[in-house]
Specification:
heterodimer, A: about 375 residues, alpha/beta, Transcription Regulator spoIIAA, 13 helices, about 70% helix, elongated, B: about 260 residues, Rossmann fold, six-stranded mixed sheet, 10 helices, 10 strands, about 35% helix, about 25% strand
Amino acid sequence: MSPAASAPDAGLRTEVGAGGERVVRLAGRLDAESTARLWRSAMEAARAARGAALVVEASAVDYCDGSGAALLAALEQEVREAGGRFELRGLREDLRRLVALVAPSPRAAAAAPRRAPSLVARLGGAALGALAAGRTLVTFVGQVVLALGWALRHPGRVRWGDAFLVAERAGAGATPIMTGVGFLLGLILAFQSAMPMRRFAADIFVADLLGLAMLRELGPLMASILLAARSGSAFAAEIGTMKVNEELDALATMGLDPVRFLVVPRVVAAVAVVPALAMITSLAGLLGGLLVYGSLGYPPVTFVSRIVDMVEPGDVVGGLFKAGVFGVIVAALGCLRGMQTGKGAQAVGLSTTSAVVSGIVAIALVDGVFAVVFYVLGI
Amino acid sequence: MSSAAEREPIIRVEDLVAGYGDRTIFDGVSFEVLRGEVFVILGGSGSGKSTLLKVMIGLLRPWRGKVWIQGRDVTSDDPEERAKILRGIGVMYQQGALFGSMTLLENVRLPLEELTDLPDEAMDRIAASKLKLVGLEGFEDYYPSDISGGMRKRAAIARAMALDPAILFLDEPSAGLDPITSAELDDTILLLRDTLGITFVVVSHELASIEKIADRVLMLDKDTRGVAAIGTPEYLRDHCEIEWVRRFFRRESRPEAAA
């Protein structure tokens, strides 16, 4: 007889019986703690039986909880799967019933484990997923365009209260941070460009550079990216939570179109506030640039006159137009991601992340398209 | 089961006062829960059932009073003491509170992974055995979003049982379930009480379920902010000296409501 393992309240000993069968003697209290200590030794004994008989002598077991019962059931399964004979001796009748309750049924025990899909299947699945996502996007764009057309025809039925609330949060709420970001951006841009330009006595043109960059490009871009980060994510989280709580289903069953009800107010608000935010960002950037320009020894009037000479109305209008389009894209994508939310808290988090990432990627892509179109049109 | 007189108290609640802000939810609540019984906390909306449960499991600090679970003080500030208490109890929340990113097996495995030294194989087998115990064998690889509300509640019970606690607290186990699923859940509770000797503290207002599973019922009174009555469902229905408690159990409307 050899002691294999022991616990303060439980013990396990293995021996070879008279008929050559392996005998595992269990004693004491088989609870979660002692089972943790005895598990490996007990399973090793079962494996050592190698398809022969294993007898578990449990008459000295005085308590057995779910973990202990799972151990006894696991021993039986291990021996039977190897083609051996299992015998449980001496266990109290009530504990024996518990072991029977937790033992896996033969059908479940014999079930083949789930196989991971092959590489081809995964590639195919990914391709089908991408196609479905593309189709959803096209459908959604169509729905938004139709809903905006409906809003133009029926302005009285647009939920202006919701739109103003969104505009306040996305616009007024973002104004301080956009002012700060724009000011610093203009200051840094002016400073960084002034240093090399000064070598060629061209630092007077810092105003030209800054005016064009801020009003035509950076203002709209920064405002849109901030909208994606602040509001696109919020739209996705709000609508995603509504989806999880079946509020979207409730809207649909009331005969209300979720796109008109939820998306239109947000898109309308974004179209209204992003150009304004872009202008605020640009003006704050020019203010930051003016500070650097002054430190170079030029008076403010030179700064203003250079910008007025350099920047044409088309640049300003083009920048604001781009900002409006970016606003539509960011707001619509945020809403789309919210409506695509799956089930559970994790799905809402994924939608939020996806709203921000896809919003910023879309802004970059569409900005590239605008650059080409404006070049071709000579704007 | 042995009679109530033979059993020892496993939970003792002494003169409990709790509330939110300046609003008292209950005041001076005292009772005992006996080992191996199904103890139901019952009361109308706003009577403090869920608040009492939160205090009992240590999620909410009472303003005054003590809760003793297996001789340890839940209201203690000692983190080690609290950890020992929590190790001995399991809680099923009203919505199940299963982790959506994990399969059912992973949900049940989680407490075993974090709080025991069991080998991997043992954790898998024990988690699977808990799921089998609540009738979810074969659903180990499913996510909570793939199964019905009743199955989610049963999986939540399996997770609460992962560490073989002596006491299980269930918050509204039958809420939102159809009668058949609710009856199946009741059978699971009785099976676990009878086979594992688990003590259940159940917050509920489903009378059909209470009459089936409860050994004793505590009735909270919203007006007095205290315990209205305590006893077996039969006693409260037929012999309780408080008329509205008897009417409640007989499913009779209040006279003022009927007028």
